[in-house]
Write a structure and sequence with these properties.
The chain has 609 residues and is α+β, with helices and mostly antiparallel strands. The chain contains 18 helices and 32 strands.
Length: 609
Amino acid sequence: MHSMTKNFLGFLVLCVSTPLFASVKYFIDINDPAHHTAQVKMIIPAGMESIDVLLPTWRTGNYKLINQANGIRNFKATSKVGKNLNWQRKNKSHWVIENPTEKAITVSYQLYANELAFRSRHIDSTHAYLDATAVFMYVPQLMLSEHQINLEVDDNWRSFSGLKETGKHQFVAKNYHQLSSSPIETGINKLSEFSVDGRDYQIVIWGEGNYSLEKITKDLKALVKQGSTIWSNYPFEKYVFIIHATSGARGATEHLNSTVIQRERNTFAPRKEYLKFLRTASHEFVHTWNVKAYRPESLVPYDYQKENYSQLLWVAEGSTSYLQDHLLLTGKIQKPKEYFKELAERIDRLQQGPGFKMQSVADSSFEKWIAQGGDFATNHSSNIYSHGFMVSWLLDAKILEDSNLKYSYKDVHNALYEKRKEHSTSYDNFFAAPFNQQDILSIAKQLTGNDYQAWWQKNVLTPFSIDFKVLLDKAGLKFKTDKKKEINVWTGFKSKNEKGFLALTSVEKGSPAWQSGLTTKDLLVAIDGMRVTHENFKMMMEKYAPTREIEVSFFRNDQLMKTQLKLGKRPKKPLEIGLVDNPTDAQKKYFKAWLGIDYPKPDKELLQN
């Protein structure tokens, strides 16, 4: 299938020249890509009589336990002379090997990799994406040792990683923690390379789509320059943007000096869709500092076998979401009015999901490992991303005000990054400085002279409240009003077509549908005695006025039921944010201190009431 002899021998020379005790070595032979399988060999150096070998039960960037060992088959352990060794599987992710001679051994296993959407491992005839936590086992006592990787792949494949490259399809990690956050993309791909301020960047795209590699390169080149607007320096010399233009997978994951971004192949245009891609890229780039260079102390180091609980995941994710648009603004990659539209949509979504009133961002951070989605999340749960964004905005506004615009929340993040100097050993071994709640409070107090304990209790440890008009007015912004005040009839539920029925997928707490007793999975069949479907529902609602009471017929558990629903109303148009008519100098200065750009010049679109 492929000729790897030369690369394989070259890697063996590298291994021989390195003391065995210093390195763990992996050889991964992607021998049957069409059927998503590979053969993995792991050479464990001498010195241990009983060897624990484990595969992580979760991958970094995803705070949820997953069954990563379910793709392992044909586990085998052999001595240096090829003798089979006794071993026992203790649990789903833990093997114990008897090694009476204490010499170097080889562990081998077949790997099935067909989990693209998890961004953990995927192999097919065109590429392989390998997140180490789902591919490479580790020995706890050797986690801080050097780890070497050799790939055996088709000759026309190209391999990329944030790791140091030691040869064609060969990489080396300082230790397992670096390896665990340095995925490898190998296969048939498109490549763009550039350098900024002495650092090297690669854009590697797998898959076809409606993207322009030239435009992506131009915008990402502008993006990476913006790290200096927040942090004192960069924690890497090389960074890789891995992009999957594919089908049936979307999302992104941050890593030490790389990211993987997945998008449906034809969603890189038009501009609205392309902005989503840019925001994702910026989000993951911010993570290079916030999470990868500093993170909550309970995650330093990562414990790969169980949940790593923290009340500060809202800082890890929500603050990253908050800062992502700041980089796009200072880099002139998005226009202010595009940011205002995104901000208005965030506010709209918050106001239509009452869960943030039920749970604090601290509690949602701690419970992220068991968090549910869907209707329960909307109505009963806070979200570390969207609600963490809002708490970050509140904290930014307070620091700006308390420091008379001298400091902002960005300065808190730079101070957290600078803590790596206080935790040099931790940073050298685990590539992250730990921080806790008190660190944030102390930094804020050092910047402003004010105590933030009461603020923290009010906004982080209990469900927060937020006055958007006040926050916007500080920066010379306002909600634009619609003079016609067009409204929609509002039921408070969302639905989908299910075999011709109108199936409820979400019911907003406190809404008309909620008050009438409707819930998810109810199948609506009639309104006022007339048949209703997913297709004709909107048209039927147009004949009703708000506050009208209607009779709803529906199936629940196959039983036909009826209820009365009193309709409500909501504005037909979404919220919009624009400029105030006559901004003061104070508002303009606040805007600049907040977003890092000058107050926009007025135009008809931004000023329109």
